[in-house]
UniProtKB/TrEMBL annotation:
TM stretches of this protein: 34-54, 66-88, 100-120, 127-143, 149-167
Lineage: Bacteria, Pseudomonadati, Pseudomonadota, Alphaproteobacteria, Hyphomicrobiales
Entry's localization field: Cell membrane
Similarity comment text for this entry: Belongs to the chromate ion transporter (CHR) (TC 2.A.51) family.
Bilayer disposition of the protein: Multi-pass membrane protein
Keyword list, A-Z: Cell membrane, Membrane, Transmembrane, Transmembrane helix
Pfam family of the protein (one): Chromate_transp
Protein name: Chromate transporter
The keyword Cell membrane belongs to this UniProt entry's keyword annotation: yes
Amino acid sequence: MAFFKLGLIGFGGVAGWVRQIIVVERGFLDEREFAEWLGFASVLPGANTVNLAVMLGDRHQGASGAFAALLGLLMAPIIILIGIVSLFDRFASLPDVSAALGGAAAATAGLVIGNAYKMIRTIRTDVLAILIAGLTFAATGALRLSLVASLTFIVPLSLLVYVASGWRR
């Protein structure tokens, strides 16, 4: 039901809601676990929230839990998407619709920035995590490397750094 709720309210993406529902409302993970699980889900192929749903569903109920979480996450958006696409096809050329899409893009950017801020607060005492996050931002944001190219280099590097530092949770 948590993932159904995410799918239902996650217009423009669930990034702004996933932490609130998974950590705050349901308590499935604590703040640090959420940052770790979302990080792992983000480097796997596919959408990070879909990966997170499968991982959490499996953790709590095995394969049937993974399937239920995935179905819950995707069912409502697919039904809504079919309806919206039908309307968009008919009204996309109207200036008001174009302006609304611009506003939605700005709101989505704000949600992503807000979620990033909350995650950074969680790892602020972990100097290695801050350095790796900064390196990732520099690679993808400042240097404009593709996400695949950045992660191909940064994920193995971060694993080596943490193993070499003797990091223990």
